[in-house]
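Homework help board

Subject: predicted structure for assignment chain

Our instructor gave us this sequence and asked us to write out the predicted structure in token form, then describe one feature. I got the tokens but I'm not sure how to describe them. Can anyone check?
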Amino acid sequence: MRAVLTRVSSASVIVDGEVVGAIDCPETGGLLALVGVSREDTAVNTAELEAKIEKMARKIAELRILEGEKSVEEAGAPVLVVSQFTLYGKTAKGRRPSWSDAAPGDAAEPVIEKIIARLLARGVHVETGKFGAMMEVASVNQGPFTVLVET
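My token output:
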């Protein structure tokens, strides 16, 4: 599993001309979390997959990357979670990325949903994109500050 976490003052997702998820947090900041799931993630046993899901949710909630070295939980900051299979694009050869390392949608979607559920269970305000849709993602970065998280 892989996530790109960007500290933002606002972020939104539009699908078919309609806002489906948005955060606006100029005082505390928040996170735009682009989350990808690999075939390797979904090929493990259930206990290993659940541990990876828990670790990703914990990292998103607890990493001290907001202003003043606070975490999302400490700051009461929101998170916009957007599924992003392209995080597993391979570009070493040729001019066209290969998506063979990305988990198929029917395997990845439940993983993304479980990460969201774990964040909600921690009391994090979560907004989302729409899995599998063509999304327009907008963000106003703070810093800019972006980190890559892998589990």
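Reply (TA_rk): Your tokens look well-formed. For the description, you could write something like this. The beta strands are 2-15, 18-24, 30-36, 79-83, 126-128, 136-150. That's the kind of observation they're looking for.
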